[in-house]
Every structure is written in structure tokens, then in C-alpha cells.
Amino acid sequence: MSNDFWLDRPVFVTGATGLLGSALVRRLVELHAMPVCLMRDWVGHSRFVEDDFHRHSVVVRGALEDFELLLRTVNEYEIDTVFHLGAQTIVGTAARSPLSTFESNVRGTWNLLEACRLCPSTVSRIVVASSDKAYGEHDTLPYTEQFPLHARYPYDVSKACADMIGISYFHSFGLPVAITRCGNLFGGGDLNFNRLVPGTIRSALRGEAPLIRSDGTYLRDYFYVEDAVDAYLHLAEALPREDVVGEVFNFGNETPISVLEMVEMILELTGQTALTPTVLGEACREISKQFLDCEKARTILNWRPRRTMPEGLAATIAWYRKHLESSS
Q1: Which of 69, 162, 218, 280 would you call most buried, defined as having the most Cβ atoms within 10 angstroms of its Cβ?
Q2: What CA dihedral angle connects 257, 262, 265 and 270, to 10 degrees?
Q3: What does the pLDDT look like over 155-180, one tens digit per residue?
Q4: Is pLDDT at 52 greater than 90 in this prediction?
Q5: In sequence order, what DSSP letters do the residues of 171-224 get, joined into one string?
Q6: From 135, 153, 155, 169, the catalytic residue
Q7: Which tens digits make up the pLDDT trace of 35-45?
Q8: Residue 291: φ, ψ to 5°
Q9: How high is the pLDDT of residue 2?
């Protein structure tokens, strides 16, 4: 990444209080960009708030469903770069409330892209966050970007729709869009403790048996958030190159492990190997096996993750240890 590429560049980040959004905004602040951050809810314990990133950003309060707000923001702040990370990201929440998930993830995406389309003189690069869940379930693994999108369940379908809307706006209107499909993100700052990694870390640090909602055999590609930030910045800097614009890129560690293996690794790193996970076997409407092939990102973007899984987990555990101690 260029040291001065982001200097004074107006960057619009949706989902700024989330795991990836907070980490990305922190890096943009360090790179002396001008972050403009969409915040629906004031999440007091988010890294975005606790680490005072909001003091170094323009904070726009509102939701992706508000088209006029998005248009005003992109226009008034003369946005150059858009990172569209905002979404309802919890699979279980999507299953319980598909309509609100579709409103946020699907309508929110076309609202944002339409706002960008109406401001062509300023917007020069747009990165839309899809997901590996958009692929749905395939017999052949790992997923490459050429695989069709076979999403079936509410969250997966919402991300597949956002993915295809982004591609449509490129082909139909020439918008400088690129799509990311990442593995399961983890890292310090994720306050959704119903997710496997933060939930297991919290249980381990409290000396409690971690809960596994599935049968423990589900296979996933876990991806450290700081490596994801690197990936997003690499991709944005490469736009609007002809071999990048309108393209989809997988990002992940390419080291799939089962849910049970991830829990055991966390217990080992926290020194809590005597704890036995409680396997609930309750998960449904989820894909059993999925992981990514990232050869395209390596070849075209010259990108690869810089941390091993244990390194990422160790840094993550350290963050939660400090966070839980300070909030107790």
C-alpha cells in the first residue's frame, strides 16, 4: 500500500462500528484519510467509540435504508472512496427476521450504489462486501470466484443479492465497483458474542464451558480482521484498474478448520484445555462446509494474509482479556 495514497482522501465507510468497520476506520485514521462513517446505533462498547475513532471522523447518524441521507452524504462530503461494509451480519438474526435483513443488506446496497451513481464526478472506487455465504453449498471445494451463487438461506441470499447488485451497477452504469467475498472474520472488537470466536474466548476467560451451537463438524475458513483490512485497502488502491473493476475477489486464510478444532485452539491459547465444550447440535439453515480459493487475489492484487491463525487468535484473545477486565 502507498504511504500517501489515502492522505486527505474522503472515504465513506458504512458499518463503521462493526468488527471490520472499526478496524478499517482505525487504519484510515492512521493513514491520514478523511473517514466519513455511517452509524445507525451508538454502540458504546465498540472499538469505534471506545478508541475514539469517532473523534477523528465525520459521523453520519442514520441507516442504509435512508436513500436521501446516503445521497446527501456522498454529495456533500465529496466522497472519493466507498467501503460498503454495513449489513445485518448475524446468520441467526437473519433466520428470525428475514425482512429486516433484506431491507438492510439488499435495499441498503442499491440505495448506496444509486447515490454513488448520481455523484459520478467524485466517486472513483467502491468496494462492496459480499460473503463466502453467497456461494451457498457446493459439492466441490474450495470455492473459486467462478462458482455460481447458490445461496438458499436468508443471510446468504441477502449477501448474494448485494453481490449481484454491485456487479449490475458496474455493467449497467460503469460504476467503479469491486466485490469481496471473505471467510468468517474474527478479531478484537467483535461484540456479537453469539459468534463462535468471541463467544468461546469470553467463556474460556471466565472459566466456563464454551457452547457450540452446531454439532462441531462445520468447516469454515476463519480470517483475521487485520488481514481483511489489508485486503480491502489493497483492493481499493487497485481500482479502477481494468483487471480489478467489476471483479470479485475471495479473501481468506485458505486453512479451513472445523468448529470444534477452532474451539480447541482457543482453549489451548487461553490455557483452559480442561474445559469441555458443550455441543448443542441446534444449528440449522447453515452451510456445512465452505472455504475459499484466494489464488486470484494473490495473482492480481499481490495480496496474501500476513498473520497465521494462532497469531491472529493470540492478538484477539489479548484484546478480549483487556476489554472484559475493564468492563467488569
Answers
A1: 162
A2: 160
A3: 999 999 999 999 999 999 999 999 99
A4: no
A5: HHH---EEEEEE-EEE-TT---TTSHHHHHHHHHHTT-PPEESS-S--EE-EEE
A6: 155
A7: 999 998 887 77
A8: -160, 165
A9: 56
Distance CA 315, CA 188 (A): 7
Beta strands in the chain (DSSP E): 10-14, 34-39, 58-61, 81-84, 125-129, 177-182, 184-186, 211-212, 219-220, 222-224, 248-251, 257-258, 278-279
Could you read off the pLDDT of 251-298 as tens digits, one per residue? 999 999 999 999 999 999 999 999 999 998 887 777 888 999 999 999
Instruction: Read off the C-alpha cell for 128.
Output: 462492496
Helix (H, G, I), strand (E, B) or coil at 275: coil
77 is an active site residue: no
Q: What would the 3-class secondary structure string for 290-321 be?
A: CCECCHHHHHHHCCCCCCCHHHHHHHHHHHHH
In this structure, what are the phi and psi dihedrals at residue 111, rounded to the nearest 5 degrees?
-60, -50
Q: State which fold the 10-186+223-252+290-305 domain adopts.
A: Rossmann fold (3.40.50)
Q: What is the pLDDT of residues 55-74, one digit of tens each?
A: 889 999 999 999 999 999 99
pLDDT of residue 203: 97
At 181, the amino acid letter reads R
Which residues, 6 or more positions from 276, have their beta carbon under 8 angstroms from its beta carbon?
A: 209
Helix (H) or strand (E) holding 101: helix 98-102
Provide the pLDDT for residue 90: 83
Q: Looking at residue 201, what is its pLDDT?
A: 98
pTM, to two decimals: 0.94
| DSSP state, residue 286 | S
Report the distance separating Cα 297 and Cα 302, nearest Å: 6
